User: What shape does this take?
Amino acid sequence: MSTLNNDLINEIMERNARINSQPVWEGDETAAYSQSPVADLLIRCLIESTESVFSTMCGWEMVRGSSSNQDGFSRRHDISGIIGLSEAIKATVVVSVDQELVFAIADAFLGERPTSINSDVVDLVGELANMIGGNAKERLSIPNVVLGLPTVVAGSGHYIAYNSHMTVTMIPFQCEHGSMSVELGIV
Assistant: This one.
């Protein structure tokens, strides 16, 4: 195992062993806002994963906006897939999608455009969160990271409540079909 992987694993274990209450620093736009190299690496993996999933599955280019810190009380898009990372990393990934974009994704994936948020759309958003989270986990290449099962929340303007000790970074994306965001909450 490389020295970089050992250093990252040690950083993760130390980070998970303590609650870090230091102020957040502002990094560059690709690294967003974070508190550690592990968070920066995971953010980059989520960006690459999102771009890859949409390029591969839909043939669409997702344009990334500027990342920012968020809290659990900011309004989200119309439907969100939530998936946890555990063991070596304690994190939550939220894939939040506007209704028009999720309908276009359903049309691209399933060949039929829904007219309302139904069980197929809910399953699709859960699978989208699973694909983005799973692809990011593989890109991360850190052993002992477990990806949980996705949960989906629907409703215009819904909120996601994160653990109060998490730093939450929101990465917005847009394409011709609508907008979405990928969020990382990490302890």
Summary: The longest helix spans residues 37-58. The two ends are 25 Å apart (CA to CA). The first strand starts at residue 25 and ends at 26.
